[in-house]
Write the structure tokens for this entry.
Amino acid sequence: MVVDRIRDLLFTRLKNLGYHLIRVKIINVNNKKTLQIMAERIKDRTMGIDDCTFLSKEISSYLEVDDPISSSYVLEVSSGGLSRPLTCLDDYFFFKDNKVKIVLKESFLGRKTYKGFINAVDEKQNIVLKTDEHEIKINFFEIERANIDPEWAIENNRIN
């Protein structure tokens, strides 16, 4: 898959530049492709406009050489934003005590979507989530997608 190839191509290169690759996504609207790259600085998990400009130039250079997308596209480099996606297990460690929305691949206790606070990550790669109703353990590999709750982030001044 093209997205996996681009992720593999960029992951180590961005890391060597001091950035963590959050997500690679191709959006196709009206036959116009946009390659969306979300990243952040490794040292403080922030991403400013200067970082986006710098990475855009670097990523463009990498992609010109390897050319993983055969048609024309627009490159968009951004931060994870307020509703930053949690894409790897380390994200759950780093964002402990943050409110998140998790969507599961399969229903659990009659639901696929849960909102709550990350309490911990255990040795079995379970995310311990404290919801309004109860505390649950969700295996990382059962998560379809997860994001920081943007309303909570604004209310608690968690803006990067």
Q: What stands out?
A: The mean pLDDT is 92.
